[in-house]
Design brief:
Largest sheet of chain B: none
Radius of gyration of chain B: 19 Å
Mean pLDDT of chain B: 88
Number of domains of chain B: 1
Structural class of chain A: mainly alpha
Strand order of the largest sheet of chain A: 1-2
Distance between the termini of chain A: 20 Å
Oligomer: heterodimer
Helix content of chain B: 55-70%
Strand content of chain B: under 5%
CATH topology of chain B: Helix Hairpins
Number of strands of chain A: 2
Mean pLDDT of chain A: 89
Strand content of chain A: under 5%
Radius of gyration of chain A: 21 Å
Number of domains of chain A: 1
Number of helices of chain A: 19
Order of helices and strands of chain B: HHH
Amino acid sequence: MILPFLIIIPLLAAFLITLISGEKDNWAIVLSILAAISLLALSTFSFFTTGNNTFIYEMSGWKIPLTICLVQDALSTFMLVIVNLIALTSLIFSVSYIRHYSAPWKYYALFMLLITGMNGVIATGDIFNLFVFMEIALFAAYGLVAFGCKAEEYEAAFKYAVMGSVSSTLILLGIGILYSATSTLTMAKIAEILPMLDTKLTYWVGAIFLTGFGLKAAVMPFHAWLPDAHSSAPAPISAMLSGVLIKSLGIYTIIRFFYNVLGAPQVFMIILMVIGSISIIVASYLALGQWDLKRLLAYSSISQIGFILLGIGIGTRLAVLGAVFHIFNHAVFKALLFYNSGALEMAIGTRDLRKMGNLKKALPVTSATSMIASLSIAGLPPFNGFFSKLIIIIAAVQANYIVYAVIAIIGSLLTLIYYMKVQRYGFRGGEVVEKTEIPVSLGMKSAMVILAVLCILTSLMIVPGIRELTLDPVVSVIINKTGYISAVLGR
Amino acid sequence: MVIYILCFALLLVGIYGVLTKRDLIKIILSLGIMGYAVNLMFILFAYRTGASYAILVKGKAAAEMVDPLPQALILTSIVIELGITAMLVALAIRLFEKYKTFDITKIRRLSG
């Protein structure tokens, strides 16, 4: 019964913000932070109460083939926790950051719509409903990318909107084909009927959805929009887009669709592994050559998404565990890195790594947290990124995919190199900067510190006792492919 | 069968336009064509030869009606497309104000 509130609260907050805010943004801030706190509390509560169960909410009293249902299982609640955690820290960071733009209340309204869309995509069990929520999230995302009203931002938003609507059209086409073959829109019902039909249908629909959701996840052949959109948006929005939007709209839907609905056909698993490893290598090389900090971070997102897809593609229990863990870790440290870039941009007014000096003295919190985030994403031992990458590599070796394991190792070495570049040029090299023009505000500092602490704490999720509570139920939902059908349909 | 192929051809026309046209407005129109093709595809999936409107009247069996669900879905997707198109046109206007051109090859300050 919790899931409907995860959609209702942000939607209501969005409309209330547009109604009550005037010149000042005080009420918008209060409302949106209250909404985000309650969302985080609700999603965390639902994650820990769900465990290995599955709860179904059927809308407006109809029964399952006729209604839109919301599915609350370990996977969906896990993703909800990630989304709402990053959303809350992003809002805390936004409070002073977004005052530099005009009409900040519009920002908060769009932000709430973005959360509505993502929560809806994750919660729903109906494939057309998933499409509608996806469009809500994308609408808000286009608006937020263009929020700064500069030429580059419009350009990035236009590119993003064109790519986004092409992929949405393809997804709609796939939904149409599925409906005409199975006469139902409930995902569990589709999964039940599909094995009785021609396997060609599975391949057609799988190919169309892989293209559509792959465009949303920005894996390598479909990545062109991501570096522009993610580097042009305001920093907290970059954190939301890179940290959770590509995961909830891209990775989550790929997992749900290819595992729980199609039952993980071997062809698509191999395709996922191949495009995952291409993403890892090529995006790392492209990131090496960047001097704009946010573009570098955006390319690094593509390569980390590659790690996740590689883990999903290998498909053993250990590999999926690594992928799920990496989804969480990447959301935390990539959001943190984007906050660092935002704080830097505000304090010294540039994103070019060559123009930054030694900022250890001027921005102690920012440079310290960026060090933690860089070490986590590069995969050094005490931090969370190390464990998830290690698990994916070990799983690849165990499943006899030695080539992919080598690719993953090279990829994480390249990651280490370009984050050393960030540290060397951006925070710790060159002339010592004594003081900055604008100090980093308390809200921005606290958002960064929260995520930096989480970077260290979440590596505990791999300890056996805690793993059984947190990651194992999620992995069970993914690995136990047809379990989704019986859990949702109640047989 | 022919009608499905024609419909798919319409979708390909749309994709071709998005991929090759250099004018922002033409790209937006091509996206519209893609959307129309998919909407038409939905209506074709719902169509039954010789069937009538989907309203229950006394003495009429459900088998004689077209499927009403895709028609309802299409209404939703048309509204979404309207929103997207309005958004894209607004962005195109703003881009024209900044760059003084609709040519996509001249709108490229972002690269790398």
